[in-house]
Amino acid sequence: MTINIKEISDKDRNSVLHPFTQLKAFASGELGDPTIVETGKGIRIQDAHGNHLIDGFAGLYCVNVGYGRAEVAEAISRQAFRLAYYHSYAAHTTDELAILSDRLVKMAPGKMSKVFYGMSGSDANETQAKLVWYYNNLRGKPSKKKIISRERGYHGCSVVSGSMTGMSFYHDHMDLPLPQIVHTGVPHHYWGRNPGESEREFSTRRGEELDQLIERLGPENVGGFIGEPVLGTGGITPPPEGYWQAIQAVLKKHDVLLIADEVITGFGRTGSMFGSQHYGIEPDLVTIAKGLTSAYFPLSAAIVGEKVYKVLEDGADKVGAFSHGYTYSGHPIGAAAANAVLDIVEKEDLPGNARDVGAFFQAQLQEKFAQLPIVGEVRGVGLMGAIEFVADRKNRERFDPSLKVGARVSKAARDRGLIARAMPHGDILGFAPPLVTTKGEAEEIVALA
Ligand code: PLP
Question: Which range is the signal sequence, renumbered to this chain (predicted)?
């Protein structure tokens, strides 16, 4: 298909409200024309001008099996011809949905029981909040409603999930966060450590701070804690040593549910199937999206642990039906896409590839960037990594934000043919290439970075 670039650009500028875009600069043309992305294959995409770009960010950390996978496209097409849609209310199902749910319950971290489906990470986290509240109402603890998340956490941008997100620019002018959501300190040793403090000591301190916060709020008022096993959008930051152990001990002590937001870390990105398995996390609830279908179809899920589900089922005599659900909960095409993607993840051992190629990639990033005078930290795990730029390496001083260093390095990489994301918080260049990336491709990414 030949695209009329001018016509598409004009239609777009006149009619699309683009997320996370400076609206005036786009409307006036200051940002240039929209990039019309036309095709994708493997780890590369091509725009309408015929430019090839290596996608070092897998879209938005989601196209894990790579672009152009015929197996997934065919599974979607087969299901669309056979049965494009039926709902899953009132115990209706499809074969693809039942098979997918059985797989997810068996493979998920912790002791899981049931899967509730949505369309995005945001709505799945919205569901998690409602589950925390519902669970505590049903077990006679109606005041246990506050949910704690971390500064620099990212959990989406709907009303509850946007409140969970711990960066103020996602709240400003949008009347967020909601009062039920409270934030605690970010687990980033590089910026947060006291002089001479080891990672383990820093993690212990973060645990103590959480304990004090819960005591201050009253344990009878705190129902849940949500965290990404590895902080993603807040800066691609693996947890310091001992962090999750310190946090989980406090949550257990105060009878607070742990929601693991595995939207990025699920399905192999850290080198383990789930980030929770990588870091010894035993969640009560697990959020998945992105890698579940590798973004071939919008599908997410809140996976519900045995402990929570039992209370829901036992409470049914009292409250009647579980009154929560979306038209597209358990969409059969999404389920077919997910089953095809999980077949690839398992057959091609993508967690194993993320571990092996990831170790090589991390070493290459370290070698090329760690000692540069404007680099404060190079960090990562599996196939997710970041370079953090600083004005003064010795004194850990940030660049003046108006210099937009992160955005400028990202733009320079793009001009060389690589998409690496300027993370929204700080001067950070982020990488999260598809999990099918080979060693040779990882070398290409580092060479272009
Ligand atoms: N949770 C995490 C950890 C994410 O990274 C994201 C998106 O980047 C979300 C939730 C929200 O997902 P969505 O954009 O599909 O609503």
Answer: none
